[in-house]
Here is the input.
Amino acid sequence: MSERRRIHREGVGIECVVSASIDDTERPLVVCAHGFPDTAHTWRHLTPALESAGYRVVAPFLRGYAPSDVPADGCVQTGASSLDMIAVHEEFGGDERAVLVGHDWGASIVYGAAVHTPERWAKVVGLAVPPGGAMGAALLTNADQLKKSWYMFFFQHPLADAVVPAGDLAFIDMIWRDWSPGYDAADDLSGVKDALRDP
Here is the structure.
């Protein structure tokens, strides 16, 4: 999964990594939304299995993650990215057989796209983050989940603007170490830092 294509939605360029079979519309489309801090490259391990199973895959860099654009109006909320997933579906000739896959923040994004246009999607797969109501309940009733989700609250604080970029994004290294102990994330982190380094 190394070819790239760029689409545009309302003046925002969205860079997409696509599988070799992306133009074969006989195959159902799979749209994969990455989480934070991550990039479209996270899907490089899943794509060959999906291709072997008869799908074609597109994984966009979410708006605000280089090389996709940062919108001039600063709109990078979940809803805007959900609409981007619908635009990806349209651009790549998806039909009602299409599948949405989202990890972490990407899970919330694909839930939004599915609710907005349910007729476009045969299946929706959310990884690591349940739909909104379940996530809210977990944060209120499960101290372990609250501890695991601390970063979501941290990023709402202005201090994050100073802490995250310090030391060549050492904060991002720390998060990956915490979430994936023992995993050599060097290839992933290089891409993640490139996507986040230039605000």
